[in-house]
Every structure is written in structure tokens, then in C-alpha cells.
Q: What sequence folds into this?
């Protein structure tokens, strides 16, 4: 990619998508879903993070986040969720990245400013475990994206990567725990946890 000709939105999307790959890996490590040996320590944005050793795991996270790039750039992605669910596909916990990329911003993006703001999320994630809930046995996880609008050319290859999820939805508004937020034009990001409301039915059915 020729960065000299990259739009502010394109440059921001590139930094954000790279960050999301690292952050999602950090979340999966944090939840202890795999043995610690499945990860190796790396330094990213001058923060010690964990990288998946297993090619299938790292490949899945990379393909999902890289697949978001054209949609983040156009401001179409509203939220990226890392969802942990029980053996009946009912969500137990969600890490939610709420994203706004200002489409009218046309000044130069200070990449260092954006990276510095995103770095704080990685630091916060390293101490976020007390905010989370234990996972039941037989749990699974997935990454989902919520789009503000479907891509106009829904026949393109990038759009075809995204299919509806089988994970069930909560019936009640969730309990929300903020973790971190940032604003560095043209990007705004909020990270928060969602847990089922205490009045949520235990069995959501099919």
C-alpha cells in the first residue's frame, strides 16, 4: 500500500485493524480459553502482548480482522464483538469494540497519536480479568461484526466472508462494564464488557 496516497480513513483503518488483531488475541489469552503454551510473548506498541502460536488460531483472528479493513475504512462497521458462549450457543460474555471513523475528516492522520491512544487499551486489557466472568465448561467463542449498513456491492469477495451468526441473542438489555475509550480524529473507539442481565431468561430456546 502506498501510504503517501492513503486517505485519512484508510490510514486509520490500517492501524485499527492491526490493533484489533492483537487486542482480540489478548482477550482470548486473558480468558484462558487455551493453554498458555499456545501463545508467545511479543512486544507491540511498546506493550508486552501475546501472539497465538497455533497457525489455525492466529490465521482465524488475522483473516477476520483483515477482512474488516475495507468496511472500517468506509465507516460501515459499528461494533466488533468477541463473544464467549455456553454449549447451547447462549452468550456468557461479550467484549465489545464500538468504532466510529469520521468520514468527513480530511486532515493528515498523526499515526503516533492514534497508536498511543490504542496502546492504552492493550495496557487496560492486561488488568481486566477481575471484570470478567468465569466460562462454563463446553464454551466456545467467535468474533462478530455489526455493520451500520451492508456493503453496496454485496457480491464482492470481502462481503461474502461475513455470514449471519448462530449465536443466540439476549432478550434483555445487558449489563455493561466500561473498560476504555479514546478519541483521536478521525477515530473514536469504546471498549466495554457485556454480561446478561440478572432478569435474563436462563433458557433462550432455539
A:
Amino acid at each position: 500500500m502506498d501510504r503517501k496516497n492513503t486517505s485519512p480513513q484508510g490510514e486509520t483503518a490500517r492501524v485499527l485493524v492491526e490493533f484489533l488483531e492483537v487486542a482480540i488475541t489478548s482477550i482470548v489469552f486473558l480468558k484462558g480459553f487455551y493453554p498458555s503454551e499456545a501463545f508467545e510473548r511479543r512486544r507491540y506498541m511498546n506493550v508486552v502482548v501475546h501472539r497465538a502460536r497455533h497457525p489455525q488460531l492466529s490465521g482465524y483472528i488475522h483473516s477476520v480482522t483483515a477482512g474488516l479493513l475495507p468496511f472500517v475504512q468506509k465507516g460501515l462497521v459499528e461494533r466488533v464483538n468477541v463473544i464467549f458462549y455456553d454449549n447451547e450457543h447462549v452468550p456468557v460474555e461479550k467484549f465489545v469494540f464500538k468504532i466510529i471513523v469520521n468520514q468527513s475528516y480530511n486532515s493528515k492522520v498523526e499515526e503516533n497519536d492514534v497508536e498511543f491512544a490504542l496502546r492504552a487499551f492493550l495496557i487496560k486489557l492486561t488488568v481486566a480479568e477481575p471484570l470478567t466472568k468465569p466460562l462454563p465448561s463446553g464454551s466456545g467463542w467467535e468474533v462478530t461484526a455489526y455493520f451500520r449498513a451492508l456493503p453496496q456491492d454485496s457480491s464482492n469477495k470481502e462481503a461474502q466472508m461475513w455470514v449471519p451468526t448462530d449465536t443466540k441473542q439476549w432478550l434483555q438489555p445487558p449489563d455493561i462494564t466500561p473498560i476504555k475509550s479514546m478519541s483521536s480524529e478521525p477515530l473514536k473507539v469504546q471498549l466495554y464488557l457485556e454480561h446478561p442481565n440478572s432478569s435474563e431468561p436462563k433458557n433462550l430456546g432455539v
Observations:
- Residues 104 and 186 are 8 Å apart (CA to CA).
- The chain has four helices and seven strands.
- The longest strand covers residues 91-101.
